[in-house]
Amino acid sequence: MKNSFKVFWAMALLFMVHSVHAQANRTQGDAGLTEGLGESKSTNVSEEYTAFLRLLRSKDTAAQRKFLAQWSGIGQQDPEYYVCQANYYLNLAQKEVIQMSTTPPNNGQEAYTLQDSLGKTVGYMYSMPSMDDELSANSRYWLNKGIARFPRRLDLLFGKVHLFGLLHQHDSFSITILQAIEKSVDNDFQWQWSKGVELQDGKQFLFSTCQDYIAKLFYSQDSLGLIWIEPISLALLEIDPKNVPCISNLAVSNMMLKRWSEAIPYLEKAYALNSHDDIVLANLGYSHFQLQNKSQAQKYYKLLKKSKDAQYRELADEMLKLSKKLK
To answer: pTM of the prediction?
Structure first.
């Protein structure tokens, strides 16, 4: 039973946090910077921006540096100039370093096994992503300049969030998210995105993107990141008090600390707003399971068995079997 319990506790973790991907002209989960660059059909994009994209794909950093120097004289009024400068330094900052350890990598990546003369494994060698501090600071410098000059460009602000995420700087990552929430209230969610595109529903875009970022904090399994889930969720609930994912996030932050009794009121509030939310049902069932509340745990897992998702139904079946052993 121990192995079964371990497997399904891992499954329960996967279901704890809502992850919602924004659809408003976004090309990737982490807003801004390299992954967000693409050819634009917008007439607002300069020829220089399109030309730099080609250079960026060519990976010719010398040509990129020369082009940016030439562009600087006329590019100060072009928001994409700041995006390109930030991308240039971000690409330079990202490195791969060789790591040697007595334990294998925990992310499942391939590793070269080191063996002694008897053929016994004594270590592992594998590559790890790394960020150059000085170059990443240059990327942040250009993002800050762009934000100051073009305060309605949300892609630049979320570009900073993405950069801090790559650096694993959870405090700066989260504080920048909170700044985006505050500025959204101030400007009534009137944001522009990459290439000057006006976001049609800035509020929905903000909430879904923030929820993706909260999911990243959750899955980081880093206590320094987890503590930020609550303040970000509370800031969003100030805007929309009935937002189920945000209410559920508050429960998750308590569940991570094994404060099951504190989590349940938030989950019950979320359940009252949406009684068919699989994540809320799974978390309610598991919290009651941890508190040895047999009847309540079974109640929510029986509801979860009606899910349209086979994984949730499988989870419910297994947890109902385990809950029968509760006194």
So the answer is: 0.80
